[in-house]
Write a sequence for this structure.
């Protein structure tokens, strides 16, 4: 099947005249015509040419309950009629803050922001101010938003990235200030981290990580690894920050910290917490968050706790919390069924492929390696990423939308029929690829 793209192509031509690069985010740049969506509902998207797609991008993760979940649509519509922006305190944000503190194991206080990058920024400032230390340690391959202090070494060119056990910071873009206060470590290597933390002893305010590395291959921490990271932070007096912008509410009602049983000092949430509306949150131990409470650390924002977003968060979190068995039972069952189906399809086609991740989010790679061989960014970089881009295009042609680098997000709206359809489309897409 080849899609008709006439209306999409026309829009793209006009878009390139008025939008820089024809898109509003670099993540939407593609070699050809980007997806121009007309509408979305449940597990589906429809493009402006009328083609339907089973959607595993889900707005880059937020639509955990599917697109337009009725309870969220209803809550948002009711709030719009009562006021779109207050920039003042209101009752619903207090209720949502209370629920977050009951759902998230390490949360004793929260502050709201609008998007994930902002909440990360707040966490880093708080960590530096609280510890009176300058440096942040981040891991190669981890993404913490597009702001200057952390857009380093996400997917760096390997010839610039330095030794595997002590990577050097590689800027993610032209125009970034030098990364003087950033230490880069390889993921899943406790020996390397031990050495780096000793080398920068007394200087590291915080270690920040995606507790399950979703931006580079849905890579879970090796057994004991995050316990080791926690212990090193405690030994050196550094805070541990979990960036749960993807894992939060996706791996479970208490995020990756509950799923993995490790308590960070601070964590940040966004995406899935508000059913698709833009709400993020910084959460943490009271003894750290008190530096915001007292005004020592500045934190502000016109749109913080914007009532429409908070209404969406309240409706979403009520479902995730009160219907947790059903929600997470469905999410894991569908995710694991799809993973098994894709694995089987690849094996039948004789295509060397690894499918791994927790289930509600997972990754497909073209590689001859077996589990758990993809442990960090450098392993990920050795997989055939160009072939994954071809597979993404072949899947779109067959009505399936995954994240182009091979990441899949599940929602509770995906049905068994969607999974069957997707596995059949995947087999067909694999068969259509040029011999590799
Ligand atoms: C782990 C992680 N942190 C932070 C961000 C930044 O969030 P936002 O795009 O909402 O600013 C993202 C976005 O994809 C993310 O995946």
């Amino acid at each position: 099947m080849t899609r008709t793209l006439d209306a999409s192509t026309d829009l793209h031509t006009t878009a390139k005249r008025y939008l820089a690069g024809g898109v509003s985010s670099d993540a939407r740049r593609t070699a050809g015509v980007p997806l121009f969506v007309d509408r979305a509902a449940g597990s589906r998207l429809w493009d402006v040419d009328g083609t339907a797609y089973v959607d595993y991008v889900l707005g880059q993760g937020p639509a955990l309950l599917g697109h337009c979940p009725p309870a969220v649509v209803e809550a948002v519509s009711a709030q719009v009629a009562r006021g779109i922006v207050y920039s003042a305190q209101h009752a619903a944000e207090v209720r949502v803050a209370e629920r977050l503190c009951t759902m998230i194991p390490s949360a004793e206080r929260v502050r709201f922001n609008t998007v994930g990058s902002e909440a990360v920024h707040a966490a880093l400032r708080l960590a530096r101010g609280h510890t009176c230390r300058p440096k942040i340690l981040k891991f190669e391959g981890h993404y913490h938003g597009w702001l200057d202090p952390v857009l380093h070494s996400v997917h760096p060119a390997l010839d610039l990235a330095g030794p595997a056990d002590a990577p050097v910071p590689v800027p993610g873009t032209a125009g970034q200030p030098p990364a003087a206060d950033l230490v880069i470590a390889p993921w899943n290597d406790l020996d390397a981290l031990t050495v780096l933390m000793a080398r920068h002893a007394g200087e590291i305010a915080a270690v920040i990580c995606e507790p399950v590395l979703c931006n580079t291959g849905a890579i879970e921490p090796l057994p004991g690894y995050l316990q080791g990271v926690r212990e090193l932070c405690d030994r050196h007096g550094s805070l541990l920050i979990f960036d749960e912008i993807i894992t939060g509410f996706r791996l479970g009602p208490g995020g990756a910290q509950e799923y993995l049983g490790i308590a960070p000092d601070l964590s940040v949430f966004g995406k899935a917490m508000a059913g698709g509306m833009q709400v993020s949150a910084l959460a943490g131990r009271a003894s750290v968050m008190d530096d915001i409470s007292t005004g020592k650390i500045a934190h502000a924002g016109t749109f913080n706790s914007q009532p429409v977003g908070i209404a969406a968060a309240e409706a979403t979190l009520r479902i995730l919390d009160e219907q947790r068995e059903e929600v997470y039972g469905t999410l894991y069952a569908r995710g694991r069924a799809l993973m098994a189906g894709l694995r089987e399809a690849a094996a039948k086609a004789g295509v060397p492929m690894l499918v791994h991740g927790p289930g509600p989010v997972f990754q497909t790679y073209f590689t001859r390696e077996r589990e758990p061989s993809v442990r960090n960014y450098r392993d990920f970089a050795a997989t055939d990423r160009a072939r994954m881009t071809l597979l993404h295009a072949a899947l779109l042609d067959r009505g399936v939308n995954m994240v182009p680098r091979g990441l899949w997000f599940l929602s509770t709206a995906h049905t068994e029929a969607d999974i069957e359809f997707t596995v059949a489309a995947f087999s067909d897409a694999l068969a259509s690829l040029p011999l590799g």
Remarks:
- The pocket of pyridoxal-5'-phosphate is lined by residues 60, 115-117, 120, 143-145, 210, 215, 243, 245-246, 270 (CB under 6 Å).
- The radius of gyration is 21 Å.
- The first helix runs from residue 6 to 18.
- The first strand starts at residue 37 and ends at 41.
